[in-house]
């Protein structure tokens, strides 16, 4: 096998469920599979940025739990959203102080949605933190992030599995979705109805891109975890890790992606 094998990993959004991506990355790394490029939306973009910056998957989980990411969100006096993300940006700067795509150890692409034009926007150069905030900016909950003249919200609105930045660049693409949707016999209230409808919509645009992936990982049971339930982070990490090991055991061909030339990328 070529020593120049290029492997892309696309990570979906999904709130705290995105912690499961870190378990996936740990399992892949343990068998010698390391990405040469990562793309992500929302939680996937955040997990991807931390990983690409050189943090080990376990370190990222620890940071998420210890900082309690969601407590940095505070009310905004605005008709455009009920929360604002400036404090989240301050948190990012603690761990991504360079604020520069070029300073990452592994190339990263981040997806966001241009809400005015109704188009997906991909970022892979220049400032890093503003695109991360835009990619995870849930419309109606947060004020849009303005970059240049673009008003940006969560990338998952239009693309919750951004494989496009990997297309034509990577020899193999691994897609990872953390929004497994179980059957629901009882919609309890309006909140659960809206949340389920949003996840269904995001899953639709994920699965429409599934054919672009050489391998597609989706840990079962993630739907039972709330998208803001930070206390379940260790369980989510374990779910992603164990599912990936199971997939590798059932599909040993994935081990052919182990790439000796990627040692310089190992973190």
UniProtKB/TrEMBL annotation:
Alphabetized UniProt keyword annotations: Hydrolase, Lipid degradation, Lipid metabolism
Ranges spanned by the short sequence motif GXSXG, renumbered to the chain:
40-44
What is the active site of this protein? 42 (nucleophile), 154 (proton acceptor)
**InterPro entries from the UniProt entry:** Acyl_Trfase/lysoPLipase (IPR016035), NTE (IPR050301), PNPLA_dom (IPR002641)
In the UniProt record, does the keyword Lipid metabolism occur? Answer: yes
Which range is the signal sequence, renumbered to this chain?
A: none
- Where on this chain is GXGXXG (motif)? 13-18
Pfam families documented for this protein: Patatin
Q: Which residues form the PNPLA domain?
A: 9-167
Map motif DGA/G onto the chain.
154-156
**Protein name per the record:** Patatin-like phospholipase family protein
Organism, as annotated: Algoriphagus aestuariicola
């Amino acid at each position: 096998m070529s020593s120049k094998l290029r492997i892309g990993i696309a990570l979906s959004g999904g709130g705290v469920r995105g912690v499961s991506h870190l378990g996936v990355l740990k399992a892949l790394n343990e068998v010698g599979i390391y990405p040469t490029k990562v793309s992500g939306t929302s939680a996937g973009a955040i997990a991807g940025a931390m990983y690409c910056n050189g943090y080990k998957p376990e370190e990222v989980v620890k940071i998420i739990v210890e900082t309690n990411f969601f407590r940095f969100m505070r009310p905004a006096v605005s008709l455009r959203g009920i929360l604002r993300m400036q404090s989240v940006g301050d948190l990012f700067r603690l761990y991504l102080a360079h604020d520069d795509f070029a300073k990452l150890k592994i190339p990263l692409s981040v997806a966001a949605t241009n809400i005015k034009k109704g188009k997906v926007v991909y970022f892979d150069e220049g400032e890093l933190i503003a695109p991360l905030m835009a990619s995870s900016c849930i419309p109606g909950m947060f004020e849009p992030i303005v970059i240049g003249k673009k008003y940006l919200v969560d990338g998952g609105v239009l693309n919750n599995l951004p494989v496009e930045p990997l297309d034509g660049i990577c020899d193999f693409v691994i897609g990872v979705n953390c929004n497994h949707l179980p059957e629901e016999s009882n919609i309890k209230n309006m909140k659960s109805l809206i949340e389920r409808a949003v996840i269904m919509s995001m899953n639709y645009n994920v699965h429409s891109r599934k054919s672009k992936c050489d391998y597609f990982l989706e840990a079962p049971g993630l739907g039972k975890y709330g998208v803001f339930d930070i206390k379940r982070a260790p369980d989510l990490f374990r779910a992603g890790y164990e599912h990936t090991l199971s997939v590798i055991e059932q599909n040993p061909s994935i081990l052919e992606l182990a790439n000796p030339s990627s040692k310089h990328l190992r973190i």
